[in-house]
Amino acid sequence: MREPLKFFKMHGLGNDFVVLDCMDGRGMDFVSQARKLCDRHCGVGADGLIAILPSVVADCRMRIFNADGSEAQMCGNGIRCAGKFVHDFGYVSTLSPAVETMSGVKTLKLSLGADGKVTDVEVDMGVAVVRDEAPAYGMIALSVGNPHIVSFVGDVMKYPVESEGPKLECHPVWPDKANVEFVQLCPDGVLLQRTWERGVGETEACGTGACAAAVAAVHAGLASFPLVVKLLGGDLHIDRDEKSGHVLMTGPATLVFEGRLIPDDGTSSESL
Q1: The domain containing residue 42 runs over which residues?
Q2: What is the pLDDT of residues 174-210, one digit of tens each?
Q3: Is the dihedral of CA 49, 237, 106, 215 positive or negative?
Q4: What is this structure's pTM?
Q5: Is residue 170 part of a domain?
Q6: Which CA distances in Å does 51 have to 64, 163, 189?
């Protein structure tokens, strides 16, 4: 019988994950593990599952699965947790690790606290691509490594996210479904955001969603970089490098606790 697999409960502004240490190359049925471990009543409880794997093109590889088992191309809060994980547990010594994702290799900049542990992470998210198609007036569809629809609303805290989110998640502008950001522009230029994530529902924060909201606001002429995006779980700072056009996201990553997962029959059924 193989040794129990370590897992780590982490979050980025309350967007929480079960992180699996698979740097030894082991595989498993990540889809079923995501459904089981993310269950908040019968599992560990999380918005998603992150597998940290070896990579031949970067310092590590991140695979991320939503609570329903669907695999996401990219996750802004998740990759900050991945950066903290590989540094704090000794897999990298550099403060600029590269992480392979389904949407390409992302470069991070790690900030350390007095204890030498990562506190904040800047992520080069690459170029955001705005779609010509829009679901409706006041909405913008765009990709930040994964699909988003940004809807500008009046009072976001009173907006019916629970009923409107699922409708836009399944809008045909994104056949594979979309993450949906409901965004209110404040007089001071700050963006207030609530997010409906595909395969999860409303979450405390969404890193790629904050990037999408910022890009959409600037594209619509409503704001300019740099921007602060206020989410239910806290603030993210979004900027854009004018030379490369790359969107830069900065925010915290937090380790909550760690445990061990006893292998079951599906432990080695999936390739990496």
Answers
A1: 5-122+253-261
A2: 999 999 999 999 999 999 999 999 999 999 999 999 9
A3: positive
A4: 0.92
A5: yes
A6: 6, 31, 36
